[in-house]
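[[Per-residue structure]]
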Amino acid sequence: LMYLTSELEHLKAPLCLKTSRIHLVLLLVRTEGRIKIMPRSPPAADSYQQGCIRMTLENAHLWKSFHSIGTEMIITKHGRRMFPHCSVSLSGLQPFANYVIMMDMVPVDSFKYKVNEQWEVAGKAEPQPPCRTYMHPDSPATGSHWMKQSLSFLKVKLTNNTLDQHGHIILHSMHRYYPRFHVIQADSPYTIRWGPFQTFSFPETTFTAVTAYQNPKITKLKIDHNPFAKGFREGGTHSHNLQRMPSTSQSVQAEKSQASKQQSLKRGHLSAWALEQDPSESLHAEPLELHEYDYNKIQ
């Protein structure tokens, strides 16, 4: 303020000080009948800076393929990973400043949907559970760290269990959501409320949460592109090369399971567990780095 006051006295011109959440201060100087906007001097490394932060969605072409026919994401009681999963890249960060990267899910609108040959509004949305926010496990890290590689949110899981104790993101079936990505300049998760941040989202990542796929075209896309659905591709067997022969009862059970999956495929309502099962996952994985924040209070 002392600096701005001295500038005012020196220039003898009207001054407008605008302090926003991102701590940008503008000095308006009237010169020859024109108003020029002059940014303050470049801040020190530990000061706030309104930089040109850019976020790019990885695999955008794949997301657009799903979006063009209406993306659906499976939600289960024990939590299900997204496919496509969210992966982004960043540029324009301060190399030596620390940042916390977070992701959450927010409703697209205030409606619930149903399928009647196509998606249509079925009524008002159910009350949303508290917004759980996933913190990228590398947080906090320097800008140079975030910018040198893509940020994967592969471990994010979606659930419809409102009593979930494993930190998964809770969503309602037949409701539409989209992920938001928050870039917060902060040295630790405990100081993010006071740090400048920017929020990014991508229209092509909008999806409908479902417990079983409603659109056969979505089922086909998942099978074609999801590495964990390779057993359902044409000519696949959805089996692994075992070193020992299964017992007779196991063989019968496997045949029944396979027949059930094939029948589900024909109907277009493939089981979430059957299609997207990741053999490396357990039902009760370790709690993820999730936190509950009210971003409305921050904004």
